[in-house]
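hiii so um. not sure if this is the right channel but i have a protein structure encoded as tokens and i wanna go backwards to a sequence. like what aa goes where. can anyone help
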């Protein structure tokens, strides 16, 4: 593992804005115990959401991915100003994204383990009248892919139709798209 370091600016902001110490923030970054929010366009700079347990707060660490130097640390509210610079790994910073950052802090999961997936789910009734939810497609998350699925219902319906051909014993009563337990579900008209 490559050690990370703090720029003078990051060191100043760390003590000004958080209750992290240099060692604890370095441990979070080196162990990849954060949720990767995205990369700045044409840059090696990444934005990482970290959780601070003792204050129950979230911060965004901005770092150079090549040198592993922390450039700055921002309160979550400040980060909105910088979102337009990012190739984002999320739709919005909602409770699901925060849950994943908290998981990174409290478990041995890394940012690679915490990546989002798009899940297409069918709400079905079986031949006995029992209702259940079946996951019919699991897709690696990208913002472009999520937008495609939510703007063009035909893409999801084609997947559903192929699934129905294989699973004729079910009656489909709903179709939804989700990107985690706590994210808002996108429902299709079926």
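sure thing!! here u go:
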């Amino acid at each position: 593992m490559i050690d990370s370091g703090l720029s003078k600016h990051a060191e100043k902001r760390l003590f000004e804005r958080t209750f992290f110490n240099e060692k604890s923030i370095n441990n979070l970054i080196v162990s990849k115990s954060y949720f990767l929010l995205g990369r700045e366009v044409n840059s090696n700079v990444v934005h990482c959401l970290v959780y601070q347990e003792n204050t129950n707060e979230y911060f965004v660490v901005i770092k150079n991915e090549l040198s592993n130097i922390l450039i700055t640390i921002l309160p979550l509210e400040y980060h909105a100003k910088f979102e337009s610079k990012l190739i984002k790994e999320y739709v919005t910073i909602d409770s699901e994204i925060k849950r994943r950052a908290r998981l990174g802090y409290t478990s041995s999961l890394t940012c690679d383990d915490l990546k989002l997936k798009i899940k297409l789910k069918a709400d079905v009734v079986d031949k006995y009248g029992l209702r259940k939810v079946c996951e019919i497609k699991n897709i690696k998350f990208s913002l472009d892919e999520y937008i495609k699925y939510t703007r063009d219902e035909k893409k999801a319906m084609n997947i559903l139709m192929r699934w129905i051909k294989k699973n004729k014993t079910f009656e489909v009563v709903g179709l939804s798209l989700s990107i985690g337990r706590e994210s808002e579900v996108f429902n299709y008209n079926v």
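oh and The first strand starts at residue 5 and ends at 6.
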